[in-house]
């Protein structure tokens, strides 16, 4: 009976690294430390052709720019040597909370099939308001 070998992607091919970083007004790892209402990361995850896009969006009440008096938030994002996206409240300045103080922020995370472009992300977020 004939047998066939199956190629298994290596860990480097399946870790979602080297992905595309996208924001409303820019693209690339240079978005590290920048402010934006949302940030997206898309990449290949199966070593063949399976792409996904992760969208991270601030809730309207987050006051991510600090214009309303809240401590501003910046995005921490990288695609090398591993994929990482997170809001950062201490990217440029420390965030000090008084003993017993609290910080409340909400975020939306969208997991989308395929590599979405900026207009697809904007349309989705507009069609799905908070």
What can you tell me about this protein's structure?
- This protein is mostly beta strands and 130 residues long.
- The chain has two helices and seven strands; from the N terminus they run H-E-E-E-E-E-E-E-H.
- The strands form two sheets. The chain has a five-stranded antiparallel β-sheet with strand order 2-1-3-4-7, covered by helices on one side. The protein has a two-stranded antiparallel sheet with strand order 5-6.
- Strand 5 and strand 6 (84-88) form a beta hairpin.
Task: Give a summary of the structure in a few sentences.
The chain contains two helices and seven strands. By secondary structure, it is mainly beta.
Largest sheet: number of strands, sense, barrel closure:
5 strands, antiparallel
Per DSSP, the total helix count is 2
| Rg estimate, integer Å | 18 Å
Helix and strand composition category:
mainly beta
Shape from CA axes? globular
What is the topology, as strand order, of the major beta sheet? Answer: 2-1-3-4-7
Secondary structure tally: strands: 7
- Distance separating the two termini: 58 Å
Helix content: 10-25%
- Percent of residues in beta strands: 25-35%
Order of helices and strands: HEEEEEEEH
- List the uncertain runs: none
Mean pLDDT over the residues: 87
């Amino acid at each position: 009976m004939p047998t066939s070998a199956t190629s298994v992607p290596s860990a480097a091919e399946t870790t979602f690294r080297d992905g595309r970083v996208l924001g409303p007004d820019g693209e690339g790892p240079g978005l590290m430390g920048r402010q934006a209402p949302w940030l997206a990361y898309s990449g290949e995850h199966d070593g063949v052709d399976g792409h996904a896009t992760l969208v991270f969006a601030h809730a309207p009440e987050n006051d991510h720019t600090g214009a309303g008096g809240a401590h501003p938030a910046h995005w921490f994002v990288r695609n090398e040597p591993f994929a990482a996206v997170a809001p950062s409240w201490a990217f440029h300045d420390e965030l000090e909370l008084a003993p017993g103080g609290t910080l409340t922020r909400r975020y939306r995370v969208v997991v989308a099939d395929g590599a979405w472009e900026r207009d697809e992300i904007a349309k989705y977020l507009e069609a799905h308001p908070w």
